[in-house]
Design brief:
By secondary structure, the protein is an alpha/beta fold. The chain has 16 helices and 16 strands. The protein has two domains: 112 residues, Roll (Urease, subunit C, domain 1), CATH 2.30.40.10; 287 residues, TIM Barrel. It binds N-(iminomethyl)-L-glutamic acid (NIG) and fe (iii) ion. Fe (iii) ion (FE) binds next to loops.
């Protein structure tokens, strides 16, 4: 099927080349005013300004959509989520309102361990159905590619169950899905006094099955005081790397304990969170090839300091933005909100935020050839806005739903 979309007020994120954006380049969001896009079989086949339509599309297809007044941009590429979980955790939300910290809740068996108990008591099918619903929900909010982690199993069966759910989502989802193994999310109760035993279980019991069944693309570790040390992270990641799993890591959320150095040593694809960064951490990360993925919704929800986006970008860091959708620290997969927060609270320019949430997010999942920009040959995964005065209006009018329609593979969802 061929569709031609005409009279697009602004077509944003048009790119002929895929380049991971860092530093100043992040502020450059290429836009064509008064544009068209041609879509063939779900793929962007041509685009340009309306005055080039006759030249570029000599024969108009039957299916022409006039979107006068609307802006189109590539769908969000959400490169960090925990979309598979069994139940929400509002009771901890109330504990936090009453004054408990995230770390205190975790220390008394809440948090990740709470979610792990619920995952282990749930069947694969019910987990799939709930995750599928969440996936539909975030697609309607403009997400057109997503990464999903395990990490709420913390047992061999639980982790494999989560990863099999993610594999099924991958097979059935119309949007690209990447799977990350996060067995090292926290130490389960059974291994509270035997950390080496759990690391051995990850390496000797979980990883071989994950590799044999092709259940993951990446390996993740929650590197944090009271969770996994940088040394433990390195051991776990090197074991995963032997099976071809690249590291994508939870680092510097609550403390700076050397995770950045380790991520660079491991040649990680991305270092995510980064709420707590020393100037030295910022400089190291900015000078490395590791993508810094900021999760402002987690800082917002936990009432923490935001990630130092300005310093990271000004030092030349390749920065991505993601939702961190999970029941504990970011019970929202709304990337529009993450983009708005990054502008309002982290002083990212709207162009920087949109680039970080699209093309750089695609790089952070290694699917920059499929999604993340308006480019010939990429998937027609597109956000159609309601009439808006400018691109900056999207983060400015936070809380307002500016999305009229979302198109995935050339079809409205
Ligand atoms: O990315 N920080 C570690 N993991 C998750 C939250 C996990 C949870 O509280 O359930 C995060 O914020
Ligand atoms: Fe996370």
């Amino acid at each position: 099927m061929t569709s031609l979309i005409i009279n697009i007020q602004q077509l944003a994120g048009v790119r002929e080349q895929n380049i991971l954006l860092r530093g100043n380049a992040l502020a450059d969001l290429p836009i064509i005013d008064n544009a068209f896009v041609l879509i063939e079989d779900g793929i962007i086949a041509e685009y340009g300004p309306m005055y080039e339509l006759e030249l570029k599309v000599p024969q108009l297809p039957k299916h022409v959509i006039d979107v006068t007044g609307q802006t189109i941009l590539p769908c969000w590429c959400d490169s960090h989520t925990h979309l598979v979980f069994a139940q929400t955790r509002e009771e901890e939300f109330i504990d936090k309102i009453r004054g408990m910290s995230y770390a205190e809740i975790a220390a008394r068996g809440g948090g990740i361990l709470n979610s792990a108990n619920k995952i282990n008591a749930s069947g694969e099918e019910e987990l799939f159905v709930a995750a599928w619903q969440r996936l539909q929900q975030v697609m309607k909010m403009g997400t057109g590619a997503i990464e999903i982690k395990s990490g709420y199993g913390l047992t061999v069966e639980g982790e494999l169950k989560m990863l099999r759910v993610i594999k099924k989502l991958k097979q059935q989802s119309p949007i690209p899905v990447k799977a990350t193994f996060l067995g090292a999310h926290t130490y389960p109760v059974a291994y509270k006094e035997n950390h080496q035993g759990y690391i051995d279980s990850i390496i000797n019991e979980m990883l071989p099955v994950i590799a044999a069944e092709g259940l993951a693309d990446y390996i993740d570790v929650f590197c944090e005081t009271g969770f996994f040390s940088p040394g433990e992270m390195e051991i776990i990641c090197r074991a995963g790397m032997q099976y071809g799993l690249k590291p994508k890591l939870h680092i510097n959320q609550l403390n700076s304990i050397g995770g950045i150095e380790s991520a660079i040593k491991l040649n990680a694809l991305s270092a995510d969170h980064l709420e707590t960064m020393t100037d030295h951490d910022i400089q190291l990360l900015a000078a490395s090839t590791v993508i810094g993925t900021l999760l402002p919704a987690a800082a917002f929800f936990l009432r923490m300091q935001y990630q130092p986006a300005r310093k990271l970008i000004d030092n030349g860091c390749a920065t991505a933005l993601a939702s961190d959708y999970n029941p504990g620290s970011s019970p929202s997969g709304n990337m529009n909100f993450a983009v708005a927060l990054s502008c309002i609270q982290m002083r990212m320019l709207p162009e920087e935020a949109i680039n970080a949430a699209t093309i750089n997010g695609a790089f952070a999942m290694e699917i920059e050839n499929e999604v993340g920009s308006i480019s010939i040959g990429k998937k027609a995964n597109l956000i159609f806005t309601k009439p808006i005065p400018s691109i900056a209006y999207l983060p400015y009018s936070f809380g307002e739903n500016c999305i009229d329609k979302v198109m995935i593979n050339g079809e409205y969802v």
